[in-house]
Amino acid sequence: MTDKTPDTETEAAPVKSGADAPEGAAAAGGEAGPRPIPVSPGVHKRLTTGLGGFTLAMGASLILALMIFVVTPRADEQILPTVDYGSQLWVMRNDAPFPVHSPEGLPAGWRPTSSRVHGLDGEAGGPVAWHLGFVTPGDEYAALEQSDEKASEYVPRMTNSSKPLGTMQVAGNTWKKYHRADKEANSLARTLPDGVSLVVTGTATYEELAVLAGSLKTQPKGGGIDPSSPASPPAAP
């Protein structure tokens, strides 16, 4: 027995849905499935306004990041530092077992970027080599490689090829031409009477490689420049 009147029960009773609804209620109302659960206006505002605010904030952040990306300067290629190869030239002139060749009078725009000596700190009697790399005026790479290693092994390794394409005359000397398509490498090579091999190689054209090859001069043994003095060609204006 209850003390509530039918009118009071009608006003206070919660809306029933799903399993709480009496049998036949869905059919009576003409709708199938559970009914939506009502929420207060405050909860509805927090659920909708909060999500919208978060979306707007994320959108603004993405737009700001995109603007920074667009206006920030970017370099497509790494800029290699300029090196001074004077100390390596001094070591080769004094300690290498053969007369070293070094570029002299290269035009402006040839910038040395690497210099390495091999073989002088290892076993006595082993091959000695000097690598000297440049960025050319055409913004390509060219390197001078020289060694007293056996030419039949050294030249194919430095040129990335064992079959010359022909020859090229440079400053009165005959150089063999090589090309390796998959490495985009051009090379000129020459083996001297004393067995020392000179190779100029890189992505530079044969014309630029010929400029480097034609600048090579035999350096006298012993003495030489002060190892602390610069040995770099002039930079491009």
Automatic annotation (TrEMBL):
Pfam families found in the cross-reference section: DUF4245
Region spans: Disordered: 1-41, 217-237
Database matches in InterPro entries: DUF4245
Low complexity composition-biased segments: 18-29
UniProt keyword list: Membrane, Transmembrane, Transmembrane helix
Transmembrane segments: 51-71
Name assigned to this protein: DUF4245 domain-containing protein
Lineage, broadest ranks: Bacteria, Bacillati, Actinomycetota, Actinomycetes, Streptosporangiales
